[in-house]
Amino acid sequence: MIEAKGYAVHNKTDLLAPWTFERRDLKPHDVLIEIAFCGICHSDIHQVRSEWGPAKYPMVPGHEIVGRVTGIGAEVAKFKEGDLVGIGCMVDSCKTCPTCRQGLEQFCEKGETVFTYNSLERDKKTPTYGGYSNKIVCTEEFVVKVSERLPLSGVAPLLCAGITTYSPIKKWGIGKGHKVAVVGLGGLGHMAVKFAVALGAEVTVLSTSPSKEKDAKNLGAHNFCITTNPEHVKKYSNYFNFTIDAVSAPHDYEMYFGLLAIGGVHICVGLPTEPMKFSAFSLLRGNRSISVSSIGGIPETQEMLDFCAEHDIVSDVEVININYVNEAYERVLSSDVKYRFVIDMDTLN
Fold it and tell me: Under 8 Å CB-to-CB from 308, ≥6 apart: which residues?
């Protein structure tokens, strides 16, 4: 076994604190990664606090992982020691069902998707531990290549916030000629703006905070709408082909549906913990639809990283010492970060 150290919680009211644990020895197709940076995702907080169903403790969170390969199994073909790599939300699946073979491992038909933390290995008994740690072992099929061209701290959130927004944008073919609204300018929303702009769409940020207009324009947005101002909202009635909704708190869906053009699509990437409430008639008028999107599979994640390298796209981040992680959680909950906290894993040592 490989000794590792990280930050963990041991129950749903616990604060994250140092914890020593073990990673498995390398199997033939495994790689050992020394973690350089790990992003903090809002879903880390949900799972640490057992808000998405019963959690598995002890828990080491973190699924926005970048680092370098420091060891490889005997049959590894994709990587060598020294390679710059990343791990996102998944570390394994059956790899053989039709869905996995399509590169949609997140929807493994055998139910064997193994998530990076708060999950069980395919043996259904060994817990997984995430990226708030100094090292991780993963099968090579779930490790992605990272470009040397980009600042590594800004790459880390691409492994979740990036692919979560890139995947539906690619699915719906969003690009030149489309009018796109991004609801909420946070960790997910700011990535949606960057991708949609890079693909040639006209992008409008919808926000309740007038103070975010400058930031939206700096990110490349063409327009800004204050949704608490009825005149602003009226201006964009029946206007957008797509709205990308990155808000994870309850909000007025029907107001946003009214901003969609005929046949427009409202895409949810933020997932409130409370049930979504709206009238079917608000979609029926204008033949509009609503879609909810998960993360992408491994091939699409690699495609996204390659796209980011080509277009110089990274997340806007605040890099922190790991001993600041509990304070960072509270700041995430109060939306006090632009736009993603990233832990410098050197500070763990």
Answer: 147, 150, 155, 158, 162, 314
The tokens describing 333, both together, are 């909950």
Cβ atoms of 61 and 130 closer than 8 Å: yes
Q: What are phi and psi of 241, to 5 degrees?
A: -75, -35
Q: Kindly report the backbone phi and psi dihedral angles of residue 223, in degrees, each rounded to the nearest multiple of 5, phi listed first.
A: -140, 165
- Of the candidates 141, 85, 76, 144, which has an alpha carbon nearest to the alpha carbon of residue 114? 141
Looking at residue 143, its amino acid is V
Q: 266 - beta bridge partners?
A: 243, 290
Cα angle 159, 96, 164; round to 5: 20
| Token reading at 341 | 């906290």
Q: What is the C-alpha separation between 300 and 278, in angstroms, rounded? A: 32
pTM > 0.85: yes or no = yes
Residue 21's identity, in one-letter code, is: F
Residue ranges of domains in the chain, CATH in brackets: 2-160+296-348 (3.90.180.10), 162-292 (3.40.50.720)
From CA 166, how far away is CA 313, in angstroms rounded?
12
Q: Which residue, 1, 4, 47, 51, is CA-closest to 25?
A: 1
Give the 3-state secondary structure of residue 44.
Answer: helix
Q: Is 117 exposed, middle or buried (0-12, 13-18, 19+ CB in 10 A)?
A: buried
Q: Give the number of other CB atoms < 10 A from CB of residue 305.
A: 25
CA distance 266 to 289: 6
d(CA 225, CA 217): 12
Reported residue count of the chain is 349
Instruction: Report the chain (349 residues): mean pLDDT per 10 consecutive residues.
Output: 96 97 96 98 94 93 98 96 97 97 96 96 94 98 96 97 96 97 94 98 94 94 94 94 92 94 96 85 93 94 98 97 98 92 95
Which H or E element spans position 309? helix 298-311
Contacting residues for 79 by C-beta, under 8 A, at least 6 apart: 31, 69, 72, 85, 140, 143, 145
Query: Which of 266, 241, 259 is CA-nearest to residue 176?
Result: 241
Report the candidate in 36, 38, 37, 32 with the shortest Cα–Cα distance to residue 69.
Answer: 32
